[in-house]
Design goal:
- By secondary structure, the protein is an alpha/beta fold.
- It has twelve helices and twelve strands.
- Strands 3-4-2-1-5-12-11-6-7-10-8-9 form a twelve-stranded mixed beta sheet, sandwiched between helices.
- Strand 6 (156-161) and strand 7 form a beta hairpin.
- Helix 8 (184-200) crosses helix 9 (227-241).
- The N and C termini lie far apart (48 Å).
Length: 363
């Protein structure tokens, strides 16, 4: 914690040639943010100033405090840790080696500080994965990088909004590799992680998780594929045996089209676009990308760098605002949960209206 009882929120700039700074500035212009947290941006005060000049009609003036570390953060200002060279060059809308290197530097700096306890939660602005890999990043995204840096056994990408939470079994891999990557063991592993996160991070008692199928119409009785019967169904049954309230598999088209997701606390999709496409269609402006399974809290907006909008004062900050609020909420849920566990409090779990179906394929 910082100088007050407010959480210190570390925010990485992401790719400085995208919309990261714009959504950060617009988000922090909302006076409610400063009422509940102390923001610390990892990047460049020069780039911050550049984009601020291109934004009109901010809700209020932004008072900044340039520092070398979050340990010196002012709890009533927007703090900027200058971790980039003074001669940094900005090219809005252009993915460049320099912008990729700067994104990597800002991320590493923030990670070092959260490990030292100078910030409480981490919010990451969008990066260009290809540009960063070209510059030696070595990972296909924030999720994979953080998993390695913290040495955890597994993580899960969960997309979060008020009415929907969607996780994925396989993340940033080519679609052609999905089927050979799926296994009953992996699905059960993700269900365990998701179930634990829903309880600890979101305060949901005995969460109900819907599991999606892989093939059209859940394989249509084996006509269009047998992964539902051979891989997914056994995973649902195994999870049920462990006390996890998993249901399905469900055919994804009807599941989202009929709004059946509203009957569950979360949904587990088999691959990236199967889960993120309907999520973003339903909640793009307010969606948050959360990495479950880490010892720290990390969130991110659910959009990318949007180079075509960079520097034009067109970017919507609501996903960034939601990312900040969500990170704070999760931190507090974790603290309460951990205190409850430490005190060995007994919680009366109500009967669930929906009972596990023992694993039925539902089209």
């Amino acid at each position: 914690m910082g100088k007050s009882d407010k959480l210190i929120v570390g925010i990485t700039q992401g790719d400085g040639n995208g919309i990261g700074y714009e959504v950060i500035i617009k988000a922090l212009a909302d006076e409610r943010i400063l009422d509940i947290c102390t923001p610390v941006i990892y990047g460049s005060s020069k780039i911050f100033g550049f984009y601020k000049k291109h934004i009109h009609n901010l809700e209020q003036p932004i008072n900044t405090n340039v520092i070398s570390s979050a340990k010196d953060a002012h709890d009533k200002r927007v703090n900027i840790v200058n971790c980039l060279p003074d001669n940094i060059f900005v090219e809005p809308g252009q993915p460049t080696p320099e912008s990729a290197k700067s994104a990597m530097t800002a991320l590493k700096c923030a990670l070092d500080e959260i490990k030292q306890g100078y910030i409480d939660v981490l919010v990451t602005a969008p990066i260009n994965k290809r540009a960063m890999v070209n510059e030696g990043f070595g990972h296909t995204g924030h999720t994979e990088y953080l998993e390695k840096e913290f040495g955890v056994d597994d993580v899960a990408m969960i997309m979060v909004c008020d009415q929907l939470k969607v996780g994925v079994v396989t993340g940033h891999i080519p679609l052609r590799d999905v089927m050979c990557s799926l296994s009953t063991e992996l699905i059960v592993k993700k269900l365990r992680l998701m179930n634990a996160s829903l309880e600890r991070d979101f305060g949901i008692i005995s969460p109900k998780i819907a599991v999606l199928g892989l093939n059209p119409h859940c394989g249509d009785g084996g006509l269009l594929g047998d992964e539902e019967q051979s891989i997914i169904l056994p995973a649902v049954q195994a999870a049920n045996e462990e006390g996890i309230l998993a249901f399905g598999p469900y055919s994804p088209d009807g599941f989202f089209g009929l709004g059946n997701y509203s009957k569950f606390d979360a949904v587990l999709a088999m691959y990236h676009d199967q889960g993120l496409t309907p999520f973003k269609a339903l909640a793009f402006e307010l969606g948050v990308n959360y990495t479950a399974g880490l010892p720290i809290v990390r969130t991110s907006p659910d959009h990318g760098t949007a180079y075509d909008m960079a520097g034009k004062d067109l970017a919507d900050p609501h996903s960034m605002i939601s990312s900040i609020y969500t990170a704070i909420d999760i931190f507090r849920h974790r603290k309460s949960y951990d205190e409850m566990q430490a005190n060995k409090m007994k919680i009366q779990v109500p009967d669930n209206e929906i009972k596990p179906n023992g694993g039925r394929i539902i089209e």
